Each structure stands twice: as structure tokens, then as C-alpha cells.
């Protein structure tokens, strides 16, 4: 599905460092224990991860970002 760049969520467009993408992958793999606070704040601000009672989880937007950055 092609999206209009003018209406795409920021989480899909915002630049992320390789380290931040690695942190997003770590959350997806269930290993958010060593997630740097800077990455956690940035990923949450972009709605790529969200806090849950069990820790952090990747949002549907975060999964889409991981797919697009392969």
C-alpha cells in the first residue's frame, strides 16, 4: 500500500539512527531491559513503542517501520 507522504505518520518518516532501530528491534524481540533512555523516549514520542504493565511493546506503527527499514 502506497501512502501519501503528506499524511504519513511521523514515526514512519522521522530519521532514526541505526542504534535506535536496533533498540526498536530489541523491543520487538522482547529484550528491552537495556534500552537506552534516549532511545526509549524517542521511540515512544514517535509512537513506535508504548509502555504496558509488562514493559514496552512495539506498536503497529513500529512494526510497519521495522518492515520499511529492512
Topology:
Elements: H1 10-13, H2 18-28, H3 37-45, E1 49-52, E2 55-58, H4 60-68
Antiparallel strand pairs: 1-2
Helix pairs in contact: 2-3
Task: Pick out its properties.
single chain, 70 residues, mainly alpha, two-stranded antiparallel sheet, 4 helices
Q: Could you explain how this protein is built, in words?
A:
- The two termini are 16 Å apart.
- The protein contains 4 helices and 2 strands; from the N terminus they run H-H-H-E-E-H.
- The model has no long low-confidence stretch (mean pLDDT 89).
- Strand 1 and strand 2 (55-58) form a beta hairpin.
- It has one domain.
- A two-stranded antiparallel sheet has the order 1-2.
- The protein is mainly alpha-helical.
Number of strands: 2
| Number of DSSP helical runs | 4
Strand content: 5-15%
Order of helices and strands: HHHEEH
Mean pLDDT: 89
- The CA-CA distance between the termini, in Å, is 16 Å
Structural class: mainly alpha
Report the radius of gyration as a whole number of Å.
12 Å
Number of separate domains: 1
Residues in helices, as a percent range:
40-55%
Uncertain segments are none
Strands of the widest sheet, in order across it, are 1-2
Let me know the largest β-sheet: 2 strands, antiparallel
Shape: globular
What's the quick description here?
By secondary structure, the chain is mostly helical.
Amino acid at each position: 500500500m502506497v501512502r501519501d507522504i503528506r499524511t504519513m505518520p511521523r514515526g514512519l518518516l522521522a530519521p532514526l539512527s541505526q542504534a535506535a532501530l536496533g533498540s526498536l528491534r530489541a523491543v520487538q524481540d522482547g529484550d528491552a531491559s537495556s534500552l537506552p533512555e534516549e532511545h526509549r523516549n524517542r521511540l515512544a514520542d514517535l509512537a513506535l513503542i508504548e509502555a504496558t504493565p509488562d514493559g514496552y511493546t512495539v506498536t503497529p506503527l513500529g512494526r510497519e517501520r521495522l518492515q520499511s527499514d529492512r
